[in-house]
Amino acid sequence: MKIFTKRNAKRFFLSWLFLNLILLIVYWPLVKQLVRFSPIILPSFNSVPVNAVDARSQDISHLGKLLKYDRSFSEGEKTSFIQQLEAMSQNVGEMTEAEFYLGVRQAVALAENGHTNVSYGPAFRDFNRSGIEAFWFSDGLYVVRALEVHADLIGTRIVEIEGRSPEQVSKSLGDFTGGAETWKRLRGQYILRSPELMHAAGLAVAADRLNIKVSNELGEERSVSLNALPAAKENAAYARSSLIPLSAKGLPDEIEQWNRALKLEDDSVPLYLREFDKNFLQQDLDNGVYLRATVLFNRDGMSIEDRLMAVKTNAPDGGYDFIAFDLRLSPGGDFGTVADFAKSVESILSPKGKIYIITGPQTFSAAIVSAALFKRYAPDKALIIGEPMGDYPQFWAERGMSFKLPNSDYYISYATGYHDWEKGCTDTHKYCFSRNSKHDGAAVSLTPDVFIAPSYKDYASGRDIVMDWIIQETK
Q1: Where are the domains of the chain?
Q2: Strands 349-359, 382-386: pairing kind
């Protein structure tokens, strides 16, 4: 039987210290990254609010701490942010819930950074709905889904919203989302679908209805008043993509009977709109392969890295004539899931082969990085096809623990690390995200090499004009 003496204790402590020192050396880059870019968010330590006004006041006070963590605000934007919170505090007792939510959104959006925003979950979970879904196409804003009673509106173009043009309304809604104009317009659709939020934004006469004017394909116009539906609270856990209104299937928050523009069987639906629930979709084509990545995290029981490795392993002799890598549905995730594939993609293409990176307004965050990696590692083979992405090539991202308002539970996204995927981000910028340094290289352009934006008719006919172009180009 061994006796645990002071000498043994000293040996144990030295062994433990040595082991932890080795681990610290091995994982120092990760430790350094976590310390610099992943702050610990302290709770509010508030007492239980005595009423709704007290609860909102506590939320506003806690929101003020955002400036301790988010690095994307300029000095001028910080001043505007503080002034916005002061104005909200003075009016906190008179604000409706919709006005309070949009006030929080407007304050955070002052950073003008796509990653510094408020969760859109409450926009479709906590507030009423108009009974239609509209989506922006190259030729305007069209109704793509509608409650049964408004089925005749599907396919009409919205030409006025409460007496304003859709473009004017979209510009005004941009005040509630920070970032690029593409991101603002896409995310504005969440507010547009709710008369309650539109009223709170000062863009609708009443909170229980929305007045619009539509035009059919013959150019005939008519005015319609949309009476609000209750909020879809029972679907509180439903994460809603900005592009999901384009789906050919029913949606979880469509409690009532809804009609939709796209009515196709599964095998007729364009690949980019097929099986929204799948995080990764692959379709082998005659002389190439189509790959669609959604959230760039490992889900569905198999990692994205493994799926991309299988694409590499199973490449035909002589290489693929083309790879279509579709990022139109991807709001980001972890660019590490794509990095190794991007490094080796040139080796699995035929001498004349190309990789086409398909982008759109929802291509965001790690999806933008993925597009940049393909351009950087296969400069003579990679082309960006489609529409401009949802953020600028230079942006702030990364964060640590969640920042949440204590009473409303609104999640606030903040940013701590700087990215420049066009010119490269080096240590010349104080807060360049350290993980990016291994991918620095020659400058690349993230502007689409070939601009292709679908019209409403393209979508409603079940065509994917981007893939049509690629297939034609590679014949």
Answers
A1: 52-263, 267-393+446-473
A2: parallel
CA atoms within 13 A on the CB side of 56: 22
Q: Write out the two tokens for 452.
A: 């292709």
**CA–CA gap between residue 227 and residue 203 (Å, rounded):** 16
Query: How many helices (H) and strands (E) in the chain?
Result: 15, 17
Bridge pairing between strands 382-386 and 450-451: parallel
Q: Which residues contact 23 (CB under 8 A, 6 or more apart)?
A: none
| CATH 1.10.510.10 is held by the domain 267-393+446-473 | no
| Entry pTM | 0.91
Which residues are CB-neighbours of 82 under 8 A, at least 6 positions away? 64, 67
**Domain 52-263, architecture per CATH:** Roll (2.30)
* Binned average pLDDT, 10 residues per bin, the chain of 475 residues: 57 59 54 72 87 96 96 97 97 96 98 95 89 97 96 98 98 97 96 97 98 97 96 63 89 86 87 89 95 86 89 95 97 94 96 97 96 95 98 93 94 94 77 80 90 97 96 93
